[in-house]
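Predict structure. Chain length: 324.
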Amino acid sequence: MSNLTFGAGIWHFATYVDRYATDGYGEPRSILDAIELAGQVDDLSVVDLNYPFFGGDFSNEQVKNALEAQRLRAIGITPEIYTRVFAKGAFTNPDPGVRRLAHDLITEAADVVRYFGADYVKLWPGQDGWDYPFQVDHKKLWQLSLDGLGQLASENPDLKFVVEYKPREPRVHMAFDSVSRTLLGLEKIGLPNIGILLDFGHALFGGESPADSAQLAIDYGRLFGMDVNDNLRSWDDDMIAGTVHPTELMEFFYVLRRNNWEGVWQLDQFPFREDSVDAANLAIEFLKRVDAALDRLDVDALVEAQDRQDAVAANRLVQQALYG
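Prediction complete.
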């Protein structure tokens, strides 16, 4: 079995709201409460932290002390450039003052990354995009996306910036909506410290093969991180990893292993009604099973089957390894 590192977005342990339960599912939790819960998960060692820290006016030192108490470290800092103040976009907002606000918030997050010794600034520009035909000038909007990201990466050459693409939500159509479009943008910017954080569920939601998306990002040297979860493909449900698409999840990690990609197997799940610690443990247990199955997989026979494009032979090998 590989020497795996497991992580989770700290929001996995927060309190969730939706259009119907606007007061939330469960009692409100601060980031310190969420860190304490994260510490109860077996084999969890890193977390991605929202910034600003939710649930109170907490200092970097308070959060660091809470992490150390649970033997956790921060892998990334995710600035909240997707909230109401950025309703018309962060990088692409028509108001230059709001674009500056987004830049300044991400710059603060960069300093938080340095404070914690984290791996990257994670950018999920969920409000950058459009909703209606003729709403935006597509050339201008795309250029604003690239200019905003490129400026931050050039100002902070000592840090990595990762872009988490997604087809839609909250905008009806996000600017960074797919692996191919995101890669086109990163290649056009041309800086070495920008890459992709590939969310397994976002790839599913976008009609992609997550394994193919991972290979494409690896081929361009841009796969800096990944999140795993699951969904029914019609929405970003953020369900427990492996509960719906176990075979595609195994193929995803097969591609990572074949390319000697080393990184954290990170959860991005939203257990609205489930116990958050239990949901994380179930996902990690399955990820371990996938890793053990990859150890058992007859790779030479699989390569031969793939060379023939023999779907039956390939899947028989995979099922034998995964299910016994």
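Summary: The radius of gyration is 20 Å.
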